[in-house]
Amino acid sequence: QVQLVESGGGLVQPGGSLRLSCVASGSIFRRMGWYRQAPGKQRELVAAITLGGSTNYADSVKGRFTISRDNAKNTVYLQMNSLKPEDTAVYYCNVELLFVDGMDYWGKGTLVTVSS
Question: Could you report the per-residue pLDDT of 10-33, keeping only the tens digit for each?
């Protein structure tokens, strides 16, 4: 089975930084990414990266967040800089299988709170 283990969430002041990590085991993943859901809002894509290294970001995080992956470790990272209170949300790791289109898995989520 596919297993996702997320880490790195916590409380940080505005302007601070955090790095989220998601270790994915059990398969090869064509696409890995991060979504977030804030109270009262829909879940939204934050950033994603393909096996070939192509990336895309939500407009709200461009220039502040960077997604990367280590294929040898099957780990995806999200470096978050210049954090704002509106970044407060539960962040979820999401991965898509290489050989089965439309088959994806979700992590349990890690809470990021940006507040002074």
Answer: 999 999 999 999 999 999 999 999
Read off the tokens for 48. Answer: 């994603």
CB 8 within 8 A of CB 16: no
- For β-strands 55-57 and 44-50, DSSP reports them as antiparallel
Count of C-beta atoms within a 10 Å radius of residue 116 = 8
Q: 3-state class of 87 per DSSP?
A: helix
Spatial contact of 4 and 93, defined as CB atoms under 8 Å apart: yes
Structure tokens at 63: 């220039």
Render pLDDT for 39-65 as a digit per residue (tens, 0 to 9): 999 999 999 999 999 999 999 999 999
Residue 49: how many CB atoms within 10 A of its CB?
A: 22
**Which residues have CB under 8 Å from 63's CB, separation 6+?**
none
Distance from C-alpha of 79 to C-alpha of 107, rounded to nearest angstrom: 18
